[in-house]
Design a protein that fits this description.
With 393 residues, the protein is of the alpha/beta class. It has 2 domains: 265 residues, Type I PLP-dependent aspartate aminotransferase-like (Major domain) (Aspartate Aminotransferase, domain 2, 3-Layer(aba) Sandwich); 106 residues, Aspartate Aminotransferase, domain 1. Helix content is 39%, strand content 13%. It contains 12 helices and 13 strands. The strands form 3 sheets. A 7-stranded mixed β-sheet has the order 2-8-7-6-5-3-4, sandwiched between helices. The chain has a 4-stranded antiparallel β-sheet with strand order 9-10-13-12, covered by helices on one side. The longest helix has 23 residues. The radius of gyration is 22 Å and the shape is globular. The two termini are 17 Å apart. The model has no long low-confidence stretch (mean pLDDT 97). It binds pyridoxal-5'-phosphate. The site of pyridoxal-5'-phosphate (PLP) has 13 residues, from helix 4 and helix 5.
Length: 393
């Protein structure tokens, strides 16, 4: 199999299967409720591990918890509440659906104005890249929050995090960065880049497994000033005093809602120790070389067959995946699975995404995957598949 979809769901690490088995049989099965003595703070300890291994964050700023969507909702509200009197949220049309939908809901609930940077404007630089000048056009003193992706999920364009954070910050707005398609592929340096708020998932390049918890990052510069909604008992100072009234715990602890997902966190911890051994600098370098290699193969083999490339050609402007377009992308992506044992990712209407997950994709696997795609399309094999609704995921 050529697995080129590590940006949707990372592969299962052997060590993780063992870690989960051990957790299940020895810890849950053996320790029962006494296990909570060492499970209870796992959202923070695995959060710190995520922070140091993949986010460039000092301890006490990351929780591994909930989902990206829930974390987005909560941090967006926290930021907006910290900018009273401002009533605008800025997002880009190319942002991930859940991000746009959640912000639409917040804007409706709070009577705010949601401004969406349209795709035509995003095309000005290159494939959804947002230049500081472009963002500046959308900034004014009414903007409370800007929400952007570090790597755009569709085009794979990489945004200039420090520069854009600075442009929004200069007008007094928060930026909430969604790192879902970047974390585990790029050597993120959230502390150094001056980021205040970020969120992301762990089941893509971090190989945490389907539905593994997401994470949230709140810089220590702002964590005591912001208040995320949902005052669960894990955010309570002196939680087990079980007191009558909520009193927020200081720091990142005040952002936790409830009982940690111990199974999922066990999986993330296992993944993090593998990534730590490889090192994010090497992983980012291989993402750049692997996508360079894919672009060479695209130019030589796929462009002549009617494919287009919708991802920046300069490695510093992209992450670990490429967006290829073709008029028959739907048939091609079904046929690749059915006849060629190549797993890409399909996005309506005409996009096939292919990723280098640097930890496990070999150059040979990339070469073979592209070779099979070339042969399949030049032989017209994709015309043999029938298009039934819901067949493509
Ligand atoms: C994958 C992804 C998500 C997923 O959100 P969930 O809450 O985990 O379903 C959100 N945002 C972006 C940018 C993504 O790439």
């Amino acid at each position: 199999m050529c697995y080129l979809d590590g940006n949707s769901l990372g592969r299962l690490p052997k060590a993780t299967a063992e870690a989960i088995q051990k957790m299940t049989l020895e810890e849950w099965g053996g320790e029962l409720v006494t296990g909570w003595s060492h499970w209870i703070d796992m959202a923070q300890s695995v959060g710190d591990q995520l922070g140091s291994v993949v986010l460039g964050a000092k301890p006490g700023q990351v929780l591994a918890t909930d989902t990206t969507s829930v974390n987005l909702y909560r941090l967006a509200l926290a930021a907006i509440k910290d900018r009273p009197g401002r009533s605008t949220i800025v997002v880009d049309e190319a942002n991930f659906p859940t991000d746009r939908y959640i912000l639409q809901g917040i804007a409706a609930d709070l009577g705010m104005n949601l401004v969406t940077i349209p795709n035509e404007d995003l095309a000005v630089a290159e494939f959804e890249r947002i230049t500081p000048d472009l963002l500046a056009k959308y900034m004014n003193d009414d903007v409370a929050l800007v929400c952007l992706q570090i790597i755009n999920y569709r085009s794979g364009a990489r945004q200039d995090v420090p520069a854009l954070t600075e442009v929004a910050g200069a007008r007094g707005a928060y930026v909430l960065w969604d790192a879902s398609h970047a974390v585990g592929a790029l050597d993120l340096q959230l502390d150094k880049w001056g980021v205040d708020l970020a969120i992301g998932c762990t089941y893509k390049y971090c190989n945490g497994g389907p539905g593994a918890p997401g994470w949230l990052y709140v810089s220590s510069a702002v964590s005591n000033q912001l208040h995320a909604p949902v005052q669960g008992w894990f955010a309570q100072k002196n939680q087990f005093a079980m007191g009558p009234d909520f009193e927020r715990a200081p720091g990142i602890l005040g952002y936790q809602i409830a009982t940690p997902s111990v199974m999922g966190l066990t999986s993330i911890a296992s993944s993090m120790s593998i990534i730590e051994q490889a090192g994010m600098a090497s992983i980012e370098a291989k993402a750049a070389q692997g996508t360079d290699f894919m672009i060479e193969l695209f130019d030589a083999w796929l462009a002549p067959l009617g494919f287009g490339l919708e991802t920046p050609r300069e490695a510093r402007h992209r992450g670990g995946h490429l967006s290829l377009t073709h008029a028959e992308a739907d048939r091609i992506s079904i046929a690749l699975r059915q006849f060629a044992n190549v797993i890409p990712d399909y996005r309506k209407p005409n996009t096939i995404r292919v990723a280098v997950a640097p930890l496990y994709n070999s150059y040979e696997e990339i070469f073979t995957g592209f070779e099979r795609m070339r042969d399949l399309v030049s032989d017209g094999k994709h015309h043999e598949v029938s298009l039934t609704e819901g067949a493509v995921t």
